[in-house]
Amino acid sequence: MDRWKFYDITHRDHLICNPTSVAKLDELIGLLDLGPEPRALDIASGKGEFIVRVAERFGGPSGAGFRGVAADISPYCTADLRARAASRVPSAALEVLEMDGAEYHPAAGSFDLASCMGGSWVFGGHRETLHFLARAVKPGGAVVAGQPFWRKEPGAEFLAWSGLKSDQFGSHLENVEAGEAEELVPLLALVSSGDEWDRYETLQWRAAARYADAHPDDPDVAELISRVEHSRREYLNWGRDTLGWALYVFGARSRKSGDRTATAADPDTSAGADLALT
Q1: Please, which residues have CB within 8 angstroms of residue 238's CB and are 6 or more apart in sequence?
Q2: Beta 137-150 vs 111-117: how paired, if at all?
């Protein structure tokens, strides 16, 4: 089954494609220190609810004056994003790119806000994602990352069932420290509740069941239902108590040009040029 078709079906009823409520997303946006008419970058933007809400908040009428770039590899998500932007912020200068976000190469310091919520796999990890975002924003700009974390050490049975690795995510503390290692200032962390997680997961059960009922002749239905059943058992048996999620906001330090330089130990500074999507 096509990967993006699967996620389009299972996330059909999601306004936000991660375990975050609308209220929490609005709270985060309200706490961003952005000036008028900011320029924003959103990688793995999904249906684009975050960047559209940023345009509504900080742009003029119908998003006028707001400039942004949203990149996502899913053709379903980019279609939803374009329709959403045309309906709600038609005056915004929002460029929607259907592409692997790691292949987008912004000029250093060209955005006031750079975000990636739930797409750290694009760059190969949380710190690598923060490195990319930190390079893209101006001094004093904002970096927003949505990232899972281990609430407790994952058990062997959970890892075997899910296919995850214990080093795939860090702790909540380590997620914050990754930003500090990239010379970012931690400003905010909003951790998702059990209710937000339950809504995110169970809406997928509902969407898959409805699709199967409406499309009994689709050859992908058997795989769709099998995968959702597997995920349901994973979540209820282990994931609900083991895996957390948070939105992290960091500030880019004010610095003189040339202060941020690469070292042999740093992730590549070419904005993900050598990081392939897997």
Answers
A1: 154, 155, 157, 158, 161, 162
A2: parallel
CA–CA distance, 231 with 239 (Å, rounded to integer): 9
* Domains, the chain, with CATH or none: 14-193+245-252 (3.40.50.150)
| pLDDT value, residue 270 | 33
The residue type of 80 is D
What distance in Å separates the CA atoms of residue 8 and residue 109, rounded to the nearest whole number? 33
For the stretch 187-236, pLDDT in tens is: 999 999 999 999 999 999 999 999 999 999 999 999 999 999 999 999 99
Greatest CA separation for the chain: 61
- Is the distance from CB of 161 to CB of 131 less than 8 angstroms? no
Report the candidate in 172, 173, 154 with the shortest Cα–Cα distance to residue 164: 154
**List of residues 6+ apart from 161 with CB closer than 8 A:** 230, 233, 234, 237, 238
